[in-house]
Write a sequence for this structure.
């Protein structure tokens, strides 16, 4: 791979149809990850066995946890005549053998291309008694040939709300939190901040305790974590919704607002000082809660770290690649550190809103910023060859560019398959901001020490 990258030309030729080394993966992976955030849920891939194996493998490699899922196991006949009989049999078999509380069905390229109507098939399964009493099936349309894993996540979040939320009854005094496409550690962190403020929440979805659970010596098909069916049914009675991430969370929040009149606030992911401030303030406003001294203390620690290490950040150039919601929040954080995010690529089709948001954040940094939505790693590498940054922030696939160009890399986003920690240590909230600073400082100073001649190799920088 690194050898091939050395043939990347500096001169950029505009490409309309060809993507080289995409900076994204397909919708069903995001949908499967969202499904795992429901307690007692078994994700189901309506397509071929190969598709399901890939989706499970991608999540298993990232989280280092066994990911269970069902598949409709399309054959040639299913591909021609439709997969209704396969899905009907799968629903009955999974409830009988594996006893999930919920089956979350997402489609694939194949089932979308032949036009399978999954809601109709689920309705037929219900009428034929294949769905036991008290059990549920939710679904989402997630064709792999459009959007990205972020799109699939958003579609499944909306699907689980649409399929399980019940009409309004009695106000529950809670706040719905749609945490976006983040790590289970990040979901746990946003819940912890809310709990410190005395705010009761319903986190949709919630993979904390599911894809980062403990090793106890006892196998559980369905880990203890995840948002429960009862909570999803009750989310229509909440006093408000905080959706974090426009591309991953806004659709579900707006559905709750439109259908059940639950007012929503759509924020950036709470990465860094400013975006976390916005989250805490939204909790305070919606729930009418006070901000405790413990949270003020954590915020002060982050501010102290920014002050202590500012000299190492100042005017350092950064290239970023990842999901649109994460890139917007990361860019905001880097600018607040007086760093220069100069090359920014998301593989997701995020539209003009993404480019406009990045332009707004970076308008005063005094440096030319390259930004592309629906871009790829090849373009990022070309930009890097034209203007070499001091740091790259991206997933594991960015390591090839980092190695080829001899640039430090901070791993962040999805997938991370060659390191551990992202499942357990958040980058959201004030504590997460401190961890990000530690990782960035470590990468920059490690490079400084590696390159320093003997006469300037000091114990303390």
């Amino acid at each position: 791979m690194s050898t091939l990258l050395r043939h990347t030309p500096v001169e950029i030729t505009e490409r309309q149809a060809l993507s080289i080394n995409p900076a994204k993966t397909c919708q069903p992976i995001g949908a499967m990850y969202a499904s795992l955030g429901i307690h007692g849920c078994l994700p189901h891939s309506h397509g071929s066995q190969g598709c399901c194996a890939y989706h499970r493998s991608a999540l298993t490699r990232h989280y280092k946890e066994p990911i269970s899922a069902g598949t409709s196991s399309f054959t040639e006949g299913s591909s021609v005549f439709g997969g209704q009989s396969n899905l009907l049999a799968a629903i009955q078999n999974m409830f009988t053998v594996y006893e999930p509380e919920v089956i979350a069905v997402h489609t694939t390229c194949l089932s979308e291309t032949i036009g399978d109507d999954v809601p109709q098939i689920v309705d037929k399964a219900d009428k034929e008694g294949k769905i036991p009493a008290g059990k549920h099936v939710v679904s989402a349309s997630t064709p792999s040939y459009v959007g990205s894993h972020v799109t699939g996540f958003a579609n499944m979040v909306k699907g689980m709300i649409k399929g399980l939320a019940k009409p309004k009854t009695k106000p529950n005094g809670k706040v719905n939190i749609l945490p976006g496409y983040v790590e289970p550690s990040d979901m746990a962190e946003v819940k912890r901040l809310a709990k410190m403020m005395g705010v009761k929440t319903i986190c949709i979805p919630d993979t904390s305790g599911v894809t980062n659970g403990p090793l106890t010596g006892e196998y559980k098909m369905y880990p203890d974590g995840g948002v429960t069916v009862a909570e999803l049914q009750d989310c229509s009675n909440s006093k408000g919704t905080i959706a974090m991430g426009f591309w991953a969370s806004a659709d579900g929040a707006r559905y709750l607002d439109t259908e059940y009149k639950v007012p929503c606030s759509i924020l950036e992911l709470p990465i860094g000082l400013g975006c976390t401030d916005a989250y805490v303030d939204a909790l305070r406003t919606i729930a009418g809660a006070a901000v405790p001294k413990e949270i003020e203390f954590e915020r002060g620690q982050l501010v102290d770290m920014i002050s202590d290490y500012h000299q190492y950040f100042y005017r350092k150039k950064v290239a970023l690649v990842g999901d649109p919601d994460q890139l917007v929040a990361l860019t905001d954080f880097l600018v607040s550190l007086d760093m220069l995010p100069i090359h920014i690529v998301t593989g997701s089709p995020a539209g003009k809103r993404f480019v406009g948001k990045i332009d707004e954040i970076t308008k005063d940094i005094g440096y030319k910023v390259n930004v592309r939505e629906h871009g790829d790693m090849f373009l990022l590498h070309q930009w890097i060859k034209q203007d070499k940054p001091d740091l790259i922030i991206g997933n594991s696939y960015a390591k090839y560019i980092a190695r080829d160009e001899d640039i430090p890399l901070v791993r962040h986003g999805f997938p991370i398959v060659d390191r551990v920690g992202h499942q357990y240590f958040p980058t959201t909230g004030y504590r997460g901001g401190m961890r990000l600073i530690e990782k960035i400082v470590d990468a920059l100073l490690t490079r400084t020490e590696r390159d320093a001649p003997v006469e300037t190799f000091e114990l303390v920088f």
Observations:
- The first strand starts at residue 41 and ends at 46.
